[in-house]
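Database export, one record per block. Field names are fixed; values are copied verbatim from the stored entry.
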Amino acid sequence: MKKLQTYLLGAISLLVLSGCATTANLDSQSSETIQESETTENLTYIGILQLTSHPALDAITEGIIDQLETAGYVDGETATIDFQNAQGDQANMQSIAERFLSNDADVMVGIATPAAQALVNVTDEIPIIMGAITDPIQANLVDSLEVPGKNITGVSDKLPIEQQFDLMLKLLPDLKTVGFIYSSSEDNSASSANEAKKVAESLGLTVVTKTVSSANDVPQTAESLAKEVEAIWVPTDNTIATSIASLVSVTDGYSIPVFPSVDTMVEQGGLAGVGLNQYSIGIQTGKVTVDILEGANPSDYSIQFPDEIEIILNEAKAEQLNIEISDDIRESAIIK
């Protein structure tokens, strides 16, 4: 009986001790969770909204994050970098922008015009940095390029259009008719196309323009355009960028070269372009973001323009289309 009483007392003691230990563990875990939460809350919060996925925009995001890390803003250590991809959906962009707002972001970054516009729609106080916006005035994002006048600034990807058409005519000296294809819903594309048309016509070219409302329209529209032109020019258009393979598949059937405006699209089947290095645009956008985080005022921070413009040449495509490349172009170009 005494042994039984001793056993019961021991068991009760173990249960009490176990309970205390469990409570202590929970208290410890709770404390760690609270500490972690408080630590996270103290980190600089950077929300990055990318319109959709394609190599050009992905390269910009990569450049931004690399530059932030170089400046000391490392995700999970010294900053919370909340990267979100809207996958081209307007409702997604709106909800992501509201998420950044509710998380009291220190700065928001919008990659491509619709993304920047979604961020502007939710706040006129939190600083917004735009990446890859061709015409921020036309998109109603800023008052002027020199003095934005609002809580937004950033980097434009405005194209060197005259240089693009000079290169096109060097490669195709007998060219008479050129086609334009872009999305009717992207303000940046329409702005670039309007400027490009003036340049092309000043050089004696006839321009045929066709627009698409979605990537699904690209094959059929490209088929129609290819029957009317000798070459096709493409601006920095996100819809075409996501379906460049479909476009090139059609134009290859007609032996028509495509002249894109960004390096990644040349690599994916275009012939050549005087274009923009998307990763470098990301680096520039990251530098602007750091400047704003460290006290610069976006309202009077002038819009930046790409500092790296390069000739990009797809030599394999030139051979496929039997287009001769002069030595001076080959030597000055980046071969993809």
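Remark 1: The first helix runs from residue 2 to 42.
Remark 2: DSSP finds 13 helices and twelve strands in the chain.
End of record.
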